[in-house]
Write a structure and sequence with these properties.
The chain is of the alpha+beta class. The protein is 52% helix and 8% strand. The model has no long low-confidence stretch (mean pLDDT 90).
């Protein structure tokens, strides 16, 4: 049986890298990506560099390893979405067979990028308390646009995408609810929700990157078509805007939670967030990308083992050993197996807790086994 790290390393290059040059760059040293935060940081930025998206840069925070691990686990488990992702391919006119990898790298490599900006020591915006909740939410949203120096036209373009009635998958949340949730996090938790913030920023950066590459391309090639062009062997197309928006949408969605107790439920009602207090669960059929991101963000081992080490004051373990101490594999088209191969049970305490609890919001069946878990959906 292959452990998780081995499974990642033997995965074919077209299933784990959208840009072929990345395979040549990392082929013999993929394990090194997981040695420390610096190497994971370099992996993420190298990915953007090869994609001619250098303006989208990672920062040296403490989540690069989690991000890199999450990205590769998704590549490993992508067959879970085969039937559902064909709809995305047909709808967005992507001809490449590895269209999943394109969407997946856009989503995962940026999903936690602004987590370090989430906690604020003191309020940075003045929001009139005497206004209605919806007006306060709109006020905060507009201030964030200015604060992050986002292009208003691109923000409206993205919001228009979110407001569209979907033709293939269901929208999880309305724009109105997203803005209200942003206000709730800001006023009640002294926090700028990193998911909503990152989704807005990513779409803005991708659109500005397209524009800048278009300018450079036309300088060197007067015959370049306005909508579609090639820059340094990378194809840019207006058709990708919907893919940019899809990726940004999944990031916006990924950090919005149901109320966890009576106290939070009362606050949700105060902020007109009662729609989040329902029995609806994210399913692989209706929201395949949200489902996969939610699943892997929950089971990703580095984040979970580090939490056990920090909270239970356990001896530290290097990251390569963590990924070598667990296996994650597809055993049926709708089932995966998670097996704990090494380490004492206490290291897996938080992972086990999160696996059991995710059935509250994911449409998934969790079966505990002596060696780990079987997840069915």
């Amino acid at each position: 049986m292959l452990n998780l790290l081995q499974s990642i390393c033997v995965l074919s290059k077209d299933r784990k890298y959208y840009y072929p040059e990345l395979y040549s760059h990392f082929n013999t040293r993929e394990k090194q990506i997981f040695q420390d935060e610096r190497n994971a940081f370099d992996f993420i930025n190298t990915y953007y560099k090869y994609g001619q998206k250098e303006s989208i840069k990672s920062s040296m925070d403490n989540k690069n390893l989690h991000t890199a691990s999450l990205y590769f686990i998704g590549c490993l488990l992508q067959d879970l979405l085969n039937i559902h992702l064909k709809k995305i391919k047909d709808y967005y006119y992507k001809k490449e067979d590895n269209y999943f990898t394109f969407l997946w790298f856009l989503i995962t490599l940026y999903h936690d990028m602004l987590s370090m900006e989430e906690k604020i020591s003191k309020p940075i915006f003045v929001i009139p308390k005497n206004q209605q909740t919806s007006k306060r939410a709109e006020c905060l949203f507009n201030k964030i646009i200015k604060y992050k120096k986002l292009d208003v036209n691109y923000v409206n373009e993205f919001l228009s995408f979110l407001n569209k009635k979907p033709k293939i998958f269901k929208n999880l949340y309305s724009v109105k609810l997203i803005k209200l949730y942003l206000l709730y996090r800001y006023e009640q938790m002294n926090s700028l929700d990193h998911g909503i913030l990152a989704g807005l920023v990513l779409y803005d950066k991708l659109r500005k990157n397209y524009d800048s590459k278009k300018i450079y391309s036309r300088v060197f090639n007067k015959n370049t078509v306005y909508e579609n062009f090639t820059y340094n062997d990378r194809i840019f197309s207006r058709k990708d805007f919907s893919l940019y928006a899809e990726a940004a949408k999944e990031i916006v969605y990924h950090n919005i939670f149901k109320p966890k107790d009576i106290e939070s439920l009362k606050l949700y009602e105060e902020y007109n967030l009662s729609d989040l207090n329902n029995n609806n669960k994210i399913s692989v059929k209706d929201n395949p990308l949200s489902f996969l991101l939610g699943l892997i963000d929950t089971i990703e081992p580095i984040k979970n083992v580090e939490k056990s080490i920090n909270n239970l004051q356990l001896p530290t373990i290097n990251y390569i050993d963590i990924l070598s101490s667990i296996s994650v594999s597809i055993i049926k088209p709708n089932q995966i197996s998670i097996k704990f191969l090494k380490l004492e049970k206490k290291y897996w305490q938080y992972l086990s807790k999160n696996i059991v609890e995710m059935k509250k919001w994911l449409k998934i069946e969790v079966n505990a086994k002596p060696y780990g878990y079987i997840l069915k959906f």
